[in-house]
Amino acid sequence: MRQELLSLPKGLAEEVSRNLVMVARLIDEDAEQAYAYSRIALRLASRVAAVREAAGFAAYATQKYSEALAEFRAAKRMTGSVELWPVMADCERGLGRPERALAMAGEPEVQKLDKAGQVEMRLVAAGARRDMGELDAAIVTLQSPELASSSVQPWTARLRYAYADALLAAGREDEAREWFAKTLEADKDGATDASDRLAEIDGVEFVDAAAAHSDLDDADEADADDEDDDQDPAEVAAAERAADQAEYYDEDDEEYEPADDADVDLTDELVVVEEDERGKA
Question: For 239-257, how does the pLDDT look when each residue is reduced to its tens digit (9 = 90+)?
Answer without folding.
Answer: 666 555 544 444 444 444 4
